[in-house]
Amino acid sequence: MNQNSRFYEEPARSLPVIAECDVLVIGGGPGGIGAAVAAARNGAKTILVERFGSFGGTWTAGLLSAIMPYPFVKGLFLELVERWTQAGGWNTWGDKYGAGGSYDSEAAKVVLDRFIVDAGITPFFFAQATAVIREGSRLTGVIIESKEGRQVIRAKMIIDSSGDGDVSALAGVPVEQGRAGDGAVQPMSMLFKMTGVDDEALEAYRKIDLQLTTEWQAAKARGEVTVPREDVLLGRNPRAGEWNFNTTRIVNKDGTKLRDVTDAMIEGRRQVFEVAAFLRKRIPGFANAVVSETAPHIGVRETRRVRCDYTITADDIMGVLPVEDCIARGNWFIDIHSPTGEGTERAHPPAGSWYEIPYRSIRAQGLDNLLVASRCIDSSHEAHAAIRITPQVMAIGEGAGTAAALAVAQGHCDTRQVDVKLLRDTLRTKGAFV
User: Fold this and answer.
1) Same structural domain for residues 261 and 361?
2) Residues of the chain with pLDDT > 70: what percent?
3) Which PANTHER family match (predicted)?
């Protein structure tokens, strides 16, 4: 190697093929869980690769703890909520289906383990995609890397549920990132929990509308708080005295860049303890509360968006028009946290209606057997801000996994030859709302 060179030529080597399957899902977050379980339950031999030591992605490694309202998502997600409830790990925000809720992240891990294993899926933890094997318009395998080194998994159909579109980018599929003009993405957040909260005192305080926000903004004006966010987002967990917080905001960082993610983790933890100090000093119920957990991984709202056969736009979200190839529905609004500081832009679809996610928007451009099933499906920056909510992402994954299994069963293993009517009928028979 030339000592002045910025590159190193890696010697060629043979890699072991450790497994073969019908459907390979990369990424075990909400979309990957939906995809893997749907594929397996529809008869496909399925492998799920996850880079952390638990399933759930942002639910567990990201410590999200809260599920936004999901009135138009059923299917596998509704089954999962029922399992969380049976495990004593779910707290509903309201008394009707789809009202939203919070969950115990440790109970969630165990429930998700059973959800995957009981479906007959072969899981691999602590591994992630580092390269793909592409032959023309098909991927024949994915190279993963773990403590055992680089290994190959071969598959007939592949689903990119990595969140950041890693498989798609490695395969050369076009991607976009950020908003038009400057490419800036929504900020990251370090989520955290506090325990020892006096629930009754805090709930009584919160009954006075905007009181917490007013106190937060006053603290910012005094210089007690430097977090570039305009309010405090918190939720009550199933355990007494435990609350979750999505209040930190780390701006001007790219979740696909090693240095940026490192800096975001450090800044995120600093902000966590700044927020906690404010709460203990200024807000009733927190006098004896402590930070009990910070997320193992920073929460990432937006990175790459993978180009597929159709780009979902803000007009699609706001227009709530039906599409013939709908695989999932949602009603979360366009919710753009400022990429550069304070402020959140919001635009709501008509009340009581839903927008539809078309199958076209998850078929990766230029490849016959790659589907996308996470927040990085093909959408504009604005539409992405609505689609990215986790129940909707799991529903998208359920659609992708079902399509992949049908492609295998029909023998063509081609995403564009899947009969859309059969796909939707199959989803309906499994309880999905499409």
Assistant:
1) no
2) 98
3) COB--COM HETERODISULFIDE REDUCTASE IRON-SULFUR SUBUNIT A (PTHR43498:SF1), FERREDOXIN:COB-COM HETERODISULFIDE REDUCTASE SUBUNIT A (PTHR43498)
